[in-house]
Design brief:
Length: 226
């Protein structure tokens, strides 16, 4: 992409590389799921999965692309105020895109069970046991007021795991510096059609489809071992 931007740059004298690079940036795309919409049943219904992926996540992606285009235009014409005004929109839709992309991979029809290897050792070290980690993550996720996410994250400074929550679609790493490992979407759109108002039951059932292989990979990458 850099070479493409450079080529356009050299062909358009008088424009800055940054402006051209931004305006030729590839659009974000809705990632395909690695499994069918119905594959996580009975724990998450096909109806929820289809709406959640093809409508909610798709909307974040579309709105992110529109906002990025407007942001690049504002920068190009030197309109700092307009660029600043777009930042909450970028954070919301960019966060929505990042969060859901992680979420789909955190889940699997072959999921469940317990984490293995170094991730499990770290969970025991930092929480006492897998059950204690789950208790902490569940309490935090259930306690999110309004819409948001519960996260198991990795703090590179402390070199340890941490349970935290984010409001709305605030992306974990950009907001807290923690590397996201396992996220629980507690927006009502993630569970209401099936679990109604009983968020604790949805949060508990997530573990039946939790993809600990994916979470382990993220952990090993975060500690520099993958
Ligand atoms: Mn969601």
């Amino acid at each position: 992409m850099l070479s493409r931007a450079n080529k356009i740059f050299s062909a358009v004298p008088g424009r800055t590389l940054a402006a051209v690079f931004v305006s030729t940036r590839a659009k974000h795309v809705l990632p395909a799921l690695a499994y069918d919409y119905g594959a996580l049943e009975p724990h998450i219904s096909a109806e929820i999965m289809e709406l959640h992926h093809s409508k909610h996540h798709a909307t974040y992606v579309n709105n992110l692309n529109v906002a990025e285009e407007k942001y690049a235009e504002a920068q190009e014409r030197g309109d700092f105020t307009a660029a600043l005004a777009l930042q909450p929109v970028l954070k919301f839709n960019g966060g929505g895109h990042i969060n859901h992309t992680i979420f789909w991979n955190n889940l699997s029809p072959d999921g469940g069970g317990e984490p293995q290897g170094e991730l499990m050792e770290a969970i025991k070290r930092d929480f006492g046991s897998f059950d204690q980690m789950k208790e902490k993550l569940n309490a935090a996720s259930v306690g999110v007021q309004g819409s948001g996410w519960g996260w198991l994250g990795y703090c590179k400074n402390r070199q340890g795991l941490q349970v935290v929550t984010c409001a709305n679609q605030d992306p974990l790493e950009a907001t807290t510096g923690l590397v996201p490992l396992f996220g629980i979407d507690v927006w009502e759109h993630a569970y209401y059609l099936q679990y109604k108002n009983v968020r604790p039951d949805y949060v508990k059932s997530i573990y039946n489809v939790a993809n600990w292989d994916d979470v382990s990979e993220r952990y090993l990458q975060a500690i520099g071992k993958a």
